[in-house]
């Protein structure tokens, strides 16, 4: 998986970690919403398919509370690069997010998006981003990303919490991917 795809996949996963902060603000419907806790994925084996202008990539990962903590740590790492990282729950149950991040050689990335669905079984993420200043010129410009994230069941015996199977069959760990975005 290319570094940008890996970063995109982790950022999607980390978006859930960002939901666990307490915030207050305006929902897209204009109502103020205080968020005491955000959506949490149920433990188990999850499949994530991400499509953007570069194509489709997928991964599977095994999640428990400790692995979710790894995602929250990656979210904090992103916050160190992000001048803006807002998330709010709307009255209709969707989660709206907005980020402005300096990803170094990967460019400055502004993203707006929404997460909807049941975070214990199956949910979707739609996001639009604009990248400028990336050293890889093909990464610059607008991009629309769609993610389909679905719980497949319990983790199989050959996978432990935090294990990731990447597109193409490669294996990794959430903490390794988070350490090398």
Please outline the helices and strands.
Blueprint (H helix, E strand, L loop, with lengths): L2 H16 L4 E4 L5 E4 L8 E9 L2 E9 L1 H17 E8 L5 E8 L5 E11 L3 E11 L8 E13 L9 E3 L5 E3 H6 L2
Antiparallel strand pairs: 1-2, 3-4, 3-9, 4-10, 5-6, 6-7, 7-8, 8-9, 10-11
Helix pairs in contact: 1-2
Q: Which keywords apply here?
A:
single chain; 181 residues; alpha+beta; two-stranded antiparallel ribbon; 11 strands; 22% helix; disordered N terminus
What does this structure look like?
The chain has about 180 residues and is of the alpha+beta class. It has one domain. Helices cover about 20% and strands about 45% of the residues. The strands form 2 sheets. Strands 5-6-7-8-9-3-4-10-11 form a 9-stranded antiparallel sheet. A two-stranded antiparallel ribbon has the order 1-2. A hairpin with a 5-residue loop joins β6 and β7.
